[in-house]
C-alpha cells in the first residue's frame, strides 16, 4: 500500500472515530453534552485536529443526521423487500421505521428534532425515506390515480401518528411495549384500509 493510500485510510479512520466518539458521548450525556473538546478528549487528540475534519459541532451533527437517514433508508428498503404486496410493504416499512427509532433514539432525536433543535438540511439522504414510502402509498392508491399532493398528505398522516408515538416513548412517557406495538399496528392497518377505500 502506498503512502497516499495509507494517509487516506488514516484520515477516514480518524473521521470515523470522531463520529463514533460523538455518538458515545451523546448516549451518556445527551446531545446537549456534546462538544468538540469532549470528542477530542475521548479519542485522545487535540481539539484543533478535530477541526481539521469538521468545521464545528454543527458539521458533526449534520454528518450524523445524514448517516442516520442512510441507515433508516436501508432498513426501509430491506423491510419493503419482505413482500410484493404494497399494503404489506407499507406496514413492514413503518414497523422498520418504528424499530429504527427505538433502537437509535439519540440518532432519531437528532434527525427529527425530538427534544432538541433539528439540524437536518434537506438532501437526498433526508428525502430517501419519504420517497420510498410515498412510492408504496402511490402503488396502493394507483386505482384512484392520486395527485402527488394527496400522496404527500397520506404520508404525513402516517408520519404524524407514528412520529407522535415514537416521540412520546423517547421522552419517557410511553406505554408498555406491547400496548405501543398494538397502537402502532392499529394505526398502520387503519390508514392502509383508508388508502384502499
TrEMBL record:
Q: Which PROSITE patterns match?
A: HTH_TETR_2
Q: Is Hydrolase tagged as a keyword?
A: no
| Location of the HTH tetR-type domain | 12-72
The Swiss-Prot or TrEMBL record annotates one GO molecular function as: DNA binding
| Pfam families to which the protein is assigned, alphabetical | TetR_C_33, TetR_N
InterPro entries to which the protein is assigned, alphabetical: Homeodomain-like_sf, HTH-type_Tx_Regulator, HTH_TetR, MT1864/Rv1816-like_C, Tet_transcr_reg_TetR-rel_C_sf
Q: What UniProt keywords apply to this chain's record, in alphabetical order?
A: DNA-binding, Transcription, Transcription regulation
Q: Which residue intervals are the DNA-binding region?
A: 35-54
UniProt key word ATP-binding: no
PANTHER family reported in the protein's UniProt record: ACREF/ENVCD OPERON REPRESSOR-RELATED, ACREF_ENVCD OPERON REPRESSOR-RELATED
Q: What is the protein name stated in its UniProt record?
A: TetR/AcrR family transcriptional regulator
What organism is the protein native to?
A: Flavobacterium cerinum
Amino acid at each position: 500500500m502506498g503512502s497516499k493510500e495509507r494517509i487516506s485510510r488514516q484520515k477516514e479512520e480518524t473521521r470515523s472515530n470522531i463520529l463514533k466518539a460523538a455518538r458515545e458521548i451523546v448516549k451518556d450525556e445527551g446531545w446537549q453534552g456534546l462538544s468538540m473538546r469532549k470528542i477530542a478528549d475521548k479519542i485522545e487528540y487535540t481539539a484543533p485536529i478535530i477541526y481539521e475534519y469538521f468545521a464545528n459541532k454543527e458539521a458533526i451533527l449534520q454528518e450524523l443526521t445524514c448517516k442516520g437517514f442512510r441507515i433508516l433508508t436501508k432498513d426501509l428498503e430491506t423491510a419493503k423487500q419482505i413482500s410484493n404486496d404494497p399494503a404489506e410493504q407499507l406496514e413492514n416499512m413503518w414497523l422498520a421505521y418504528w424499530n429504527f427509532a427505538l433502537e437509535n433514539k439519540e440518532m432519531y432525536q437528532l434527525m427529527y428534532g425530538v427534544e432538541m433543535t433539528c439540524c437536518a438540511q434537506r438532501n437526498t439522504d433526508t428525502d430517501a425515506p419519504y420517497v420510498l414510502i410515498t412510492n408504496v402509498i402511490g402503488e396502493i392508491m394507483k386505482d384512484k390515480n392520486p395527485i402527488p399532493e394527496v400522496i404527500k398528505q397520506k404520508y404525513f398522516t402516517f408520519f404524524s401518528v407514528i412520529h407522535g408515538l415514537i416521540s412520546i416513548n423517547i421522552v419517557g412517557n410511553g406505554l408498555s411495549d406491547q400496548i405501543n406495538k398494538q397502537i402502532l399496528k392499529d394505526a398502520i392497518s387503519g390508514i392502509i384500509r383508508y388508502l384502499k377505500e
